[in-house]
């Protein structure tokens, strides 16, 4: 996810966004708790609309094992945990111990707590310690590292699985090619070009949240 200082607003018209939200009924109170906590900290979240897409897409590929590169205290993990079902696994990592503490405090005895594993450390280092392949990955880390991260996780993704990447439209900044682009914008523009020309991926970008790239692995 973006840092609080670089986070950008939704690309969706606020009126349309409000209408879409109104179509959903009452949702899990854990989401309210996590959103209130994030608001207090000024911590950017992927948001419910993008989160629902994560869950739906994970269900569509029958995901049972998911790994997040950029977990924070486990907001996006909630949606994956809903999708993988009982006995499924959602792994992620964060460098800061307080994020793990916040995750434990917020989730408490929620049923999803037994499906979500937030590890302390660098995400790719943690991935190296886990056996087997995964059904889906979420990229929500430093934007300038998206291309490198994609190539490192791709061998651990099964054919037919998904790589999902948040913030790829970056408030529309990726459309403005100027000489003074910041590293995050350049990184996202490079990533978007990279995935669309990648021989092992089928790709589309959903204009939800701040842009969600959906990449399906079609070959090794």
How would you describe this structure to a colleague?
A seven-stranded mixed beta sheet has the order 3-2-1-4-5-7-6, with helices on both faces. With 220 residues, the protein is α/β, with parallel strands linked by helices. The model is unreliable at 1-8 (pLDDT under 50). Helix content is 39%, strand content 20%. The chain has a single domain, classed as 3-Layer(aba) Sandwich (Rossmann fold), CATH 3.40.50.150. Strand 1 (65-69), helix 4 and strand 2 (89-94) form a beta-alpha-beta unit. The longest helix is centred in the C-terminal third of the chain and has 14 residues, at 183-196. The chain starts with 13 loop residues before the first helix and ends with a strand.
Notable traits:
220 residues; alpha/beta; Rossmann fold; 7 strands
Walk me through the topology.
Elements: H1 14-22, H2 29-41, H3 48-60, E1 65-69, H4 75-84, E2 89-94, H5 97-107, E3 116-120, H6 123-129, E4 134-139, H7 146-153, E5 157-166, H8 183-196, E6 201-206, E7 212-217
Parallel strand pairs: 1-2, 1-4, 2-3, 4-5
Antiparallel strand pairs: 5-7, 6-7
Helix pairs in contact: 3-4
Task: Give a quick precis of the structure.
The protein is of the alpha/beta class.
Overall 3D geometry?
globular
| Gross CATH architecture | 3-Layer(aba) Sandwich
Structural class: alpha/beta
What is the CATH topology descriptor? Rossmann fold
CATH class: Alpha Beta
Can you tell me the residue ranges where pLDDT is under 50 for at least 5 consecutive residues? 1-8
Instruction: Count helical runs.
Output: 8
How many angstroms separate the termini?
A: 28 Å
Mean pLDDT: 91
**Count of distinct strands:** 7
Determine the strand fraction and express it as a percent band: 15-25%
Strand order of the largest sheet: 3-2-1-4-5-7-6
What value does the Rg take, in angstroms? 16 Å
- Run of helices and strands: HHHEHEHEHEHEHEE
Number of structural units classed as domains: 1
Query: What is the helical fraction, as a range of percent?
Result: 25-40%
**CATH homology group:** Vaccinia Virus protein VP39
* Biggest sheet details: 7 strands, mixed
């Amino acid at each position: 996810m973006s840092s609080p200082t670089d986070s950008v607003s939704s690309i969706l018209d606020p009126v349309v966004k409000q209408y879409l939200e109104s179509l959903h009924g009452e949702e899990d109170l854990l989401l309210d708790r996590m959103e209130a906590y994030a608001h207090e900290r000024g911590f950017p979240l992927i948001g419910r609309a993008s989160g629902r897409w994560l869950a739906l897409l994970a269900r569509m590929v029958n995901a049972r094992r998911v790994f997040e590169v950029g977990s924070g205290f486990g907001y996006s993990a909630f949606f994956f945990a809903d999708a993988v079902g009982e006995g499924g696994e959602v792994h992620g990592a964060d460098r800061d111990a307080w994020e793990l503490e916040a995750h434990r405090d917020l989730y408490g005895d929620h049923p999803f707590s037994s499906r979500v594993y937030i590890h302390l450390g660098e995400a790719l280092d943690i991935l190296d310690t886990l056996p087997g392949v995964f059904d889906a990955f979420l990229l929500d880390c430093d934007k300038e590292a998206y291309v490198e991260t994609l190539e490192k996780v791709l061998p651990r993704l099964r054919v037919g699985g998904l790589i999902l990447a948040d913030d790829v439209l970056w408030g529309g900044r990726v459309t403005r090619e100027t000489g003074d682009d910041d590293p995050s914008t350049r990184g996202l523009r490079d990533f978007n070009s990279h995935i669309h020309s990648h021989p092992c991926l089928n790709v589309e970008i959903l204009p939800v949240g701040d842009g969600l790239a959906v990449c399906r692995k079609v070959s090794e």
